[in-house]
Design brief:
With 203 residues, the protein is of the alpha+beta class. 26% of the residues lie in helices and 20% in strands. It is built from 4 helices and 7 strands. The model has no long low-confidence stretch (mean pLDDT 78).
């Protein structure tokens, strides 16, 4: 009895499902098979026709009238000065005679005035990088001798705020130049000259 009931219920349900699937397939087939709207047709021409263009004809050139050349430039005569015909004494007059001046060499003496040494070139020292980075300022005293050509030699440092100032001061003074000291018309050497250099940072 139960088997009959199951069969009687299953058959109508299976038939309904089969019918539904068949209708669904029919709908899908009809939608996919609809023709799409036609687009623009692409035409490719393998041998296009090119219109022939004839070349332009020759251009006639009219002859140009001849132009007369301009007249030549006028020649301006240039007068050149020649030697005078008359005697020079007649033109400027007679030159009077002068007696040659006589100079007594024994009485003529050239004397150079005595003078002290004078600075001509003073090159300032280069600020040492180490002292500049640390903000160190100060002074340095340098002593040196001066030869007859005005060149410092035997340059040595005295009291200096740092060794860097001493090296920079010595290098600078060695490049200085002076007018040497003159005594009795002769250049002489100087010893133990002294100069103090200031090292200041500019803000």
């Amino acid at each position: 009895m139960q088997r009959f009931l199951r069969t009687s219920v299953s058959l109508p349900l299976a038939g309904l499902i089969t019918f539904s699937l068949a209708m669904l397939m029919t709908y899908l087939i009809s939608v996919e098979g609809e023709p799409k709207p036609a687009g623009e047709e692409l035409v490719v021409e393998l041998f296009p026709y090119v219109e022939r263009v004839d070349p332009p004809g020759r251009v006639s050139i009219e002859p140009v009238d001849a132009v007369e050349p301009p007249p030549p430039l006028p020649v301006i005569p240039v007068e050149t000065a020649g030697p005078p015909d008359d005697d020079l004494t007649i033109v400027i007059g007679e030159v009077p005679d002068f007696a040659d001046p006589s100079i007594d060499g024994a009485r003529f003496h050239r004397r150079i005035a005595d003078q002290d040494e004078m600075p001509v070139v003073r090159i300032p020292p280069v600020y040492p990088n180490r002292e500049a980075e640390r903000g160190i300022e100060g002074q340095c005293t340098v002593q040196f001798d001066l030869n007859t050509n005005g060149q410092p030699f035997n340059v040595r440092s005295g009291a200096c705020a740092s060794p860097g100032f001493a090296r920079a001061s010595i290098q600078a003074v060695q490049r200085w130049r002076y007018e040497p000291r003159v005594e009795n018309g002769q250049a002489v050497t100087r010893s133990n000259m002294s100069v103090t250099l200031d090292f200041t940072l500019n803000d």
